[in-house]
Amino acid sequence: MCTIWDSAIQKPFLNGLPHEIEFELDGPSGHVVFSWRLTPDADAQGRVHTVLAVARDITERKQAEAALRESEARHRVLFESAGDAIMTLAPPSWRFASGNSAVISMFGARDEADFTSRAPWQYSPQMQPDGRPSSDKAREMIETALREGSHLFEWVHQRQNGETFPATVLLSRFELGGQTQLQANVRDITERKKAEEAMRLSANVFTHAREGITITDRNANILDVNAAFTDITGYSREEVLGKNPRILSSGKQDKAFYAAMWHDLQSKGHWFGEIWNRRKDGEVVAEMLTISAVRDERGDVQNYIALFSDITPIKQHQAQLEYIAHYDALTGLPNRLLLGDRLRQAMSQAPRRGQRLAVAYLDLDGFKAVNDSYGHEVGDQLLATLARRMTQVLRDGDTLGRLGGDEFVAVLVDLSDIDASIPILARLLEAAAQPFSVGDIVLNISASLGVTFYPQGEAVDADQLLRQADQAMYQAKQAGKNRYHAFDAEQDRHVRGRHESLEHIRQALAERQFVLYYQPKVNMRTGQLIGAEALIRWQHPQRGLLTPALFLPVVEDKPLAIDLGEWVIDAALTQIETWHADGLSIPVSVNVGAQQLQHPDFVPRLRTLLSRHPGVKPGELDLEVLETSALEDFAGVTQVMSACRELGVGFALDDFGTGYSSLTYLKQLPISLLKVDQSFVRDMLDDPDDLAILEGVLGLATAFRRQVIAEGVETLAHGQMLLRLGCEWAQGYAIARPMPAHDFLHWASAWDAPPAWKALQPISRDRLPALFSAVEHRAWVAAVVSYLSGKRDTTPERDDRQCRFGHWLDHGGRALLLGEGADHPVDMLHTEIHRLADELMALKHDGRADEVLSGISELHRLRDQLLEKLSELY
Q1: Is 64 helix (H, G, I), strand (E, B) or coil?
Q2: The whole model's pTM is what?
Q3: DSSP-based three-state secondary structure for 509
Q4: What is the CB-side half-sphere exposure of residue 398 using CA atoms within 13 A?
Q5: What pLDDT sits at residue 5?
Q6: Which H or E run includes 773?
Q7: Which residue pairs, CB below 8 angstroms and at least 24 apart, start in 281-288?
Q8: pLDDT of residue 78
Q9: Which residues partner with 709 through β-bridges?
């Protein structure tokens, strides 16, 4: 106590002042703290006589104060280390009073003082996403928190650099020093918002996707499907939950197919392909299906997700294109293309089976007279009937095809010897010779048949067999018709050995008697000159200018054909450079035969020719090959084409639609242009069947994603029809005949597309029936005129509702014109034309020929009026 007195008390007592001091002592009950208040009693001279001492035990208070300091330190640590930004707001202005370190980083402030120095509105954009001013909405949030004690809401804040971000804010009311304050906990939810948006997007994709979506567990049990799944399969969501997707199986795929699918899923994590499934109603549909495995963080499969779309319409359209490409529209028999495929297959199988096959080429005797006398309708009926009869007399495995016109080919397989074909050939001739009746008309025709056999002593291909059978058929006609003749291979080899003609051609090549003529290729809609085709001519010293048909067959399959072909390419390249000097730069195409194309040195020789003409740019030389040439050695020709493309030389497929190629091969050939053969163009204006074939061929070209050009455009109307069908590129006499090179420049400078072509736009698919109906009506009027003129004995359909045009009117045409039941000039003109036709037929029946002939011009006038009105639709 003396020490305490000396050090702690003495000085205050000297001043006569009371003093309070704390003592910490270790007593029997532990550590205690006392507070002593000492009050001195001094006299007038300041001498202390007595001291009043009051002691209090303040141990509990000290312990409480220590706990408080410890709690404050702990909360301060939590306050500063919190991930959320925490700040306090003080009344009355509710400005920020403090903030933790997260506030500094979140709002981009330098320190706490910098943060609190700015007004709260500076940390929010002027407007919130709901369109309300931030100041008004903040006041409302504060009032709610003060009233309810706390308030949680979303807010868009703004950092000091102006960047905005979404956040959740928890405003909490608390008391401090008798004053109500607010604490704000702010959490940046930018990533959460992105995740929510991604989830919303995923949900929208799942709900609104046009593809069907199936989600399964790891055991392939369905967990969920979207609405498109129901639209495609017919099963509701409730019907398939928990089921296996095998409920959709059509049975068209075998176990190996599904085993391969699961192998890909397990090894690659995904599978993609086409599959046939069955709808709830039993209908089988084609689907394009993608299945992906979803794995967890350990790499184990968690789910499978399948996306699929209904490609049945595409498959149906593909089947239609395949049918058009492989079958004759009139008879339903295989056409050249399919017949060629089957013939090549039969040729590959015959040696393995130790059997022979026969190719029988059949041509009707007198068919042209039937068409001329009775009209094309009767001729078509005759051909269709004859096709059925001949098919019935063939064996299973044999193939009957129609090449066109009245020409048919039968491929007879599995013949033990040549004599085994004789009964079948006799049945074919007998079927053709049976009487044919249509109405009151009974027709008797016959057929001439040529036949050749395979294998032969020399190697031959399918084309040669067809040519041999064709030659034999001609000899059967020469021998009196209604018979068959077998091809004599020995005599044919002798005939083809025309050495004298070959020497004349070889001499003409050496003496530069060959020249090139050029036929322009144009865009009919724009008038643009897009190229020219180089066509060889022989300027014969005695016979004048000869076309290729008079000399090229002689060199076919001869080495001289390669020499002649190389001359054509070299001459075309020379002309391209000459035109460059005259300011004309266009691609020039050259025809290349199969023998030249398949020659082992074709690419090196072409490279040499190009090197001699450095002025020719890539893309200025195109080579045209026939379908048959391209497919005789498909792999080799494809390789040659690819090599030529690297040299800058393109390829066009000539006479498209007349060869034997398969769609699969055509799709794979590296060609850029398809040339539609003129046989499809020639009669399209008057024959609806030919028009349908042409439209199908154009659709086929579009399906291959190839540019297409039409050959044989000989009239303005042919060009108009092609343009309506969407074919803009063409060549033909309506544009220009082949001409010498020196005339080409003058023609090119003067050429322009006819106005009637420039104004036309492709017709929409829903208007195609109107276009076809116009052709059908023109054909019907022609048939009426043919009957009235005595060129046919049967009357065309007289009922204006039973003819093809009337059928079109009643099944959509009239509604397309002006609405169901509305009167339209086309409808009235159609009725008037039928009425006039009936009158003229009655006049013919009464023998009043002069009146009939005068009425035909009126019939034509009404027809032209109807077609003009109908053309408004397209």
Answers
A1: helix
A2: 0.47
A3: helix
A4: 22
A5: 46
A6: helix 768-788
A7: 281/234, 284/250, 284/252, 285/232, 285/310, 285/312, 286/310, 286/311, 286/312, 286/314, 286/315, 287/212, 287/232, 287/311
A8: 46
A9: 675, 729
Tens of pLDDT, residue by residue over 610-643, are 999 999 999 999 999 876 665 567 778 888 999 9
Distance of CA 128 to the CA centre of its chain: 46
Q: 10 Å Cβ neighbour count for 392?
A: 10
How many C-beta neighbours within 10 Å does residue 700 have? Answer: 23
How many of the other CB atoms lie within 10 Å of CB of 650?
A: 20
Q: What is the pLDDT of residue 507?
A: 92
Q: Which of 564, 574, 499 is nearest to 538 (CA)?
A: 564
Task: Give me Rg for the CA atoms of the chain.
Answer: 48
Which sign does the torsion angle of CA 317, 322, 325, 330 carry? negative
From the list 381, 730, 732, 691, the residue with the least C-alpha distance to 525 is 730
Predicted pLDDT at 569? 96
Residues contacting 487, CB < 8 A, separation 6+: 450, 451, 452, 453, 468, 469, 471, 472
* HSE-CB for 843 with a 13 A CA cutoff: 17
- Compute the distance between CA of residue 107 and CA of residue 157 in angstroms, rounded to an integer: 9
pLDDT tens profile 186-214? 999 888 888 777 777 776 777 777 888 99
State the residue for tokens 């044999």: 398
Give backbone dihedrals phi and psi of 853, rounded to 5 degrees, phi first.
-65, -35
Q: What was the pLDDT predicted at 79?
A: 52
431: exposed, middle or buried (Cβ count in 10 Å: 0-12, 13-18, 19+):
buried
Give the whole-angstrom CA distance, residue 550 versus residue 556.
Answer: 12
Q: What is the DSSP letter of 249?
A: B
Q: Which of 670, 669, 870 is nearest to 771 (CA)?
A: 870
Q: What is the pLDDT of residue 555?
A: 84
Q: What is the pLDDT of residue 215?
A: 92
Please give the full DSSP string across 254-303, using - where no structure is assigned. -HHHHHHHHHHHHHTSEEEEEEEEE-TTS-EEEEEEEEEEEE-TTS-EEE
Please list, in sequence order, all residues whose beta carbon lies within 8 angstroms of the beta carbon of residue 228, skipping any fewer than 6 positions away. Answer: 209, 210, 211, 212, 213
Q: Which residues of 512-539 are buried (b: 16+ CB within 10 A; e: fewer)?
A: ebbebbbbbbbbbbeeebbbbbbbbbbe
Residue 847 DSSP code: T
3-class secondary structure, 842: helix
pLDDT for 731: 95
Looking up tokens 């992906």, which residue turns up?
292
Q: How far apart are CA 363 and CA 443, in angstroms?
A: 16
Instruction: Give the separation between CA 593 and CA 588, rounded to whole angstroms.
Output: 17
CA atoms of 629 and 594, how far apart (whole Å) = 5
DSSP 415-469: ESSGGGGHHHHHHHHHHHHS-EEETTEEE--EEEEEEEEES-SS---HHHHHHHH
- For residue 478, the model assigns a pLDDT of 84
Dihedral of the alpha carbons of 139, 142, 148, 149, in degrees to the nearest 10? -170
Q: Is 483 exposed, middle or buried (0-12, 13-18, 19+ CB in 10 A)?
A: middle
Give me the residue label for tokens 């005939």.
Answer: 495
- The answer to whether residues 859 and 836 touch, using CB atoms and an 8 Å cutoff, is yes
List, for residues 558-581, the tens digit of each pLDDT value. 889 999 999 999 999 999 999 999
Count of residues in the chain: 874
* Positions in the chain short of pLDDT 50: 1-9, 73, 75, 77-78, 494-497, 660-661, 820-821
Sheet holding 164-176, edge to edge: 95-99, 85-90, 179-188, 164-176, 150-158
Burial class of residue 489 (count of CB atoms within 10 Å of its CB; 0-12, 13-18, 19+): middle
Q: What is the DSSP string of 373-406?
A: HH-HHHHHHHHHHHHHHHHHHSPTT-EEEEEETT
Contacts of 179 (CB under 8 A, 6+ apart): 90, 91
Place of tokens 């003009």: 868
Q: Which residue has the tokens 């041999």?
A: 468
